[in-house]
Specification:
Arc Repressor Mutant, subunit A; mainly alpha; binds glutamic acid
């Protein structure tokens, strides 16, 4: 039973502090599934006023890498998932050994001297007979003498756990009652011959030593839970509560593949997802709060571990994009620009531009106002805005090229150029520097140009699409896009005139 004050009444009605743990193995980065596990542990701990322990499960020396531990921690930090205590299993090897030996002493575990070859042969034989692979308990009943002789002869040994008889039953917070018959398990290794613990053993020792009250992890661990409960019992430890999250599947109902979202959090960050969008989306994978768009800190009190859904979670990139676009819009321009500059700077196109110049900074600000509503990811931004920095007729899209070649277009383009020139002279005079002009001519000025031009051409029945499309095409080489005064405002007077002239020259040379 849980209450909001961070305490938990176990079966003996004694009050304990609530403690969750997130226990990643550093054999890869933080993937979407493990990140979701981390997040739900964090949410559950916070919502119950408890603590979260981060435990790096790095006893598999071959597969664990420091670099993965670092990237997991970096990604957790980025997501805003915090922890109260930190442990590394590789620094606790002696503790596991002590408990494994204690079990041997109590005859709840035993030395196993079987060689790898024998175990492989056994596995193969069982496979050929169509039986599940399971240790045949050969070393369970070795005599004291046999054991001593083997030890004296320095024969390598592992320590195996004697599985308990009967049913293993537990009440999963998400899934309800789960039962296993223990004879599906063979006696399994808890301490390997190199002295390192097996996963199931280290977890139990640590969950006990770290006073974990709730184990929340992926459903791929359900059978491990049954094994672990047997170890808890044999060691005489009280058993924590368990909750298993459903797998995350692709939209096709299959396991997540690299193409369908089986990526690390760092990869999502590099693709332009905001951290608050990422945690928002991860939370939606197994929880249905009242509002779908939220900041994590605002929903802690609405969260209840019992509301975790047991339906398979479906990873849907469209939904993630939708969530991300909301959070992009909710960010202030100032904050957003800080993030966007990272993407602009890493885009090779922008290598040739001085991004610190006042004009370019202002141009980027203006671009943000135009494209903020449209962005699904931050990474799209540099691609949207390139065209305002560099312009080439050969980059025009096919439709835009067709449009400017139309006979009406030339008239429209010449007209708007002339009106822009005369209004600029009229309003700003001739003396302004390019920079001053850029800063002073606001969007309203361009609206004025557009309405003057439109009025004059209206008489000639050039209007609507026939009016807008040639202008937009001439200015940015695209038939479709933002409203024209906005495009003009980003470009500024000088650049608009350059571009219009360039197109007029082109049409003249081509004799169009
Ligand atoms: N280290 C395990 C893993 O990364 C998780 C262990 C657990 O949560 O009990 O899958």
């Amino acid at each position: 039973m849980n209450n909001k004050n961070g305490t938990y009444l176990d079966t003996n009605s004694s009050v304990k502090d609530i403690r969750f743990r997130f226990a990643p193995s550093p054999t890869g980065g933080l993937h979407i599934g493990t990140a979701r596990t981390a997040l739900f542990n964090w949410l559950a701990a916070k919502s119950m006023g408890g603590k979260l322990i981060l435990r790096i499960e790095d006893t598999d020396i071959q597969r664990s890498k420091k670099i993965f531990e670092e990237s997991i921690i970096q990604d957790l930090n980025w997501l805003g998932i915090t922890w109260d205590e930190f442990y590394r299993q590789s620094e606790r090897i002696d503790i596991y050994k002590k408990y494994a030996e204690e079990l041997v002493k109590k005859e709840k575990a035993y030395f196993c001297f079987c060689s790898n070859e024998r175990l492989e042969e056994l596995k193969e034989k069982q496979y050929l007979e169509g039986k599940p692979s399971k240790y045949d308990n050969k070393c369970r009943n070795l005599s004291k003498e046999e054991i001593e002789n083997n030890l004296k002869a320095n024969k390598p040994y592992a320590i195996r756990f004697k599985i308990l008889e009967g049913e293993i039953i537990f009440n999963d917070i998400v899934r309800g009652i789960i039962k296993f018959n223990s004879d599906v398990f063979g006696d399994f290794v808890i301490l390997k011959s190199d002295g390192t613990p097996s996963y199931n053993f280290a977890v139990v020792v640590d969950d006990w030593e770290m006073k974990i009250t709730h184990v929340l992890r992926g459903e791929d661990h359900i059978t491990n839970t049954a094994r672990q409960i047997m170890i808890f019992k044999s060691l005489g430890f009280s058993i924590p509560e368990f909750a298993h999250l459903s797998m995350i599947l692709g939209k096709d109902g299959k396991k997540l593949s690299k193409r369908h979202g089986a990526k690390t959090i760092s990869e999502f960050r590099e693709e332009g997802y905001l951290s608050e969008a990422m945690v928002n989306y991860l939370a939606l994978l197994s929880w249905s709060p009242k509002e779908e768009i939220f900041l994590l800190k605002n929903v802690i009190n609405d969260f209840n571990i019992k509301d975790i859904s047991k339906n398979p979670a479906i990873f849907d990139i469209e939904k993630l994009n939708w969530v991300n676009s909301h959070h992009i819009r909710n960010r202030s321009n100032k904050e957003l620009l800080e993030e966007l500059y990272i993407f602009i700077k890493s885009n090779s196109f922008f290598k040739n531009f001085d991004l610190n110049s006042d004009i370019n900074k202002e141009k980027i600000n203006r671009c943000l106002n135009v494209y903020k509503e449209k962005l699904k990811t931050l990474k799209e931004f540099p691609d949207y805005i390139k065209v305002y920095f560099d312009y080439n007729l050969k980059d025009f899209d096919d439709e835009a090229l067709e449009i400017i070649k139309d006979k009406n277009s030339r008239e429209v383009i010449i007209k708007i150029r002339d009106i822009m020139l005369s209004l600029t002279n009229e309003i700003f005079g001739n003396k302004k520097s390019k920079e001053d002009l850029y800063l002073e001519a606001k969007e309203d000025f361009f609206k004025q140009i557009l309405s003057h031009t439109s009025n004059q051409l209206y008489e000639k029945n050039i209007k609507g699409k026939n009016f807008y499309m040639p202008i937009r095409s001439a200015l940015i080489g695209k038939a479709h896009g933002p409203e024209i005064p906005k495009v003009m405002y980003v470009l500024g007077i000088d650049e608009c005139l350059n571009r219009l002239d360039k197109v007029i020259n082109y049409l003249m040379v081509k004799n169009i």
